Amino acid sequence: MLPNCRKVPLSAELTEIFWENACVAVAHQYLRAKGKEGFRFLPEHAAREEQIQAMAKVGAQVIAFLRK
Hints:
Elements: E1 4-5, E2 8-9, H1 12-33, H2 45-67
Helix pairs in contact: 1-2
C-alpha cells in the first residue's frame, strides 16, 4: 500500500511519516492480539516520542516477517 494524494506521489518526508505511523498501527494491533498493552496516550512529549519509536520498530519487524 502506497499513499498518494490526488494521484500525486507524496514527498519523501510524508512517505516516511506515513510508514512510521503504519508501523505503529501494526504494532498496536499485534500487541493487542497477544493480550499486551498497545499504543497509549502519554502526556509527556519525550515519553510519547520514545513510545512511537519503539512501536514503529516492532511494527516494522512484524511487517518484515509477514512479507517473507
